[in-house]
Amino acid sequence: MTTHKAVGGTQLHTEAEQLRWEINIPGHAPRVDSPEYKKSRKRMHNMLATVEEPFFGPEPVEDHHGGGLWLKDNDGWFMVRNLAGIEWSAQFCADPAKVDLLRQNARRVYAAFPQAVEELGIRELLDTPITDADSVARWTDSICNASVPLPHHEHSARLPKGGGVHHYPTPITDIDLIKFGDFELWVTDERGENVAVAPVDRRGSGDARVHVLYAAQDSTLRAPLLEAQAEGRPLLLEPAHPVAQAAYRNQ
Question: Which of 6, 63, 165, 184 is the least crowded, having the fewest Cβ atoms under 10 Å away?
């Protein structure tokens, strides 16, 4: 649709289109929840409901393939993590021999928690060597891997709604789980691009500088960060820098 308007002897025109259009956006490989995964997810939610003051909770949470090992002692259920987790899509490049090392490590851990092994029904899983794609797939969707409860904003959200582990580096997203509530890990630069920062000294030190840990592709801090990393030094911002001030704005 084109419209025309006379202005000062000249004619301005604008164009607009009312025809709808769409394009195909590539996504991850087709995925169907396996029976093993459905059982793991249900078990995870049931066990989390029994945990007082859960570190990763409370509900609602999502089920992350993060190598969680659920154990039980006299105080009830709790979770630790294996040496590594296997994301669902990563199973297709996973070496069965390396995945079997995760099974062996889990087996040693569970040796001290026979009650958990019995209640979870994982004796066969722990005792069966991982040798092929089928056994890798079984382990990937099992309660010994697909069982880390994460809130949406920590699991699959994108900024500004949250810094999920599926979109941002895990060493940084883990900070969000342990930081003081009044410190802003994720802030934006003058362009509105996402930046992750951390303090350079302990709380109460009086040092209000920040260490830049991550900068989005179009951030003004991206090039300085890459340069600093190439030189093996941290990128530090002075207290007067807007990014540093944003990080401490709630303190």
Answer: 6
Please give the Cα distance from 142 to 84 (Å, whole number). Answer: 14
Query: Does 226 lie in the same domain as 129?
Result: no
Q: Which of 125, 150, 175 is the C-terminal boundary of a domain?
A: 150
Structure tokens at 46: 């049931």
* Averaged pLDDT for residues 192-219: 96
User: Would you say 145 and 82 are in contact if contact means Cβ atoms under 8 Å apart?
Assistant: yes
Q: Would you call 192 helix, strand, or coil by DSSP? A: coil
Q: Give me the mean pLDDT over the 186-196 stretch.
A: 96
The CA angle 179-180-183, to the nearest 5 degrees, is 95
Q: Is 220 helix (H, G, I), strand (E, B) or coil?
A: coil
Q: Percent helix, strand, coil in the chain (nearest 5)?
A: 35, 20, 45
Whether residues 92 and 145 fall in one domain: yes
